[in-house]
Amino acid sequence: MPTIRDELKKIFQSQRDRLRNADDPHMMRPKNKRKPLKGLARTLYLNRNVKLSKAEDFANSGFVSKVTIPEKKKEKEDEKKEV
Questions:
Q1: What's the rounded Cα separation, in Å, for the pair 19 and 24?
Q2: What is the pLDDT of residues 51-69, one digit of tens each?
């Protein structure tokens, strides 16, 4: 039976793996000649909206406008102050 500690460990390991895959795709197996993800493709991949293999293609396609990307909290706080 998995404990809370094990579940937390899995979550953080998954996040570390995603960051490593986005930054250093040449370290993955099988060896693919991928470039590190940048910009919108990286954001979409790290937010689990797309898989690594499709991140770059999806970011360059016209479907990006349909994906909601969470805004920064500071911007939301500024809007509340204006009201």
A1: 8
A2: 888 888 888 887 766 555 5
Residue 51 tokens, joined: 């898989």
- Domain carrying residue 62: 4-82
40/69 Cα distance (integer angstroms)? 10
Phi, psi at residue 4, to the nearest 5°?
-60, -40
How far is it, in rounded angstroms, from Cα 30 to Cα 21?
Answer: 12
- Whether a cis peptide bond, with omega within 30° of 0, leads into 25 is no
**Strand segments (E) across the chain:** none
Q: What's the structural domain count of the chain? A: 1
Tell me: the pLDDT tens digits for 26-43? 777 666 778 888 888 898
Confidence at 6, pLDDT banded by 50, 70, 90: very high
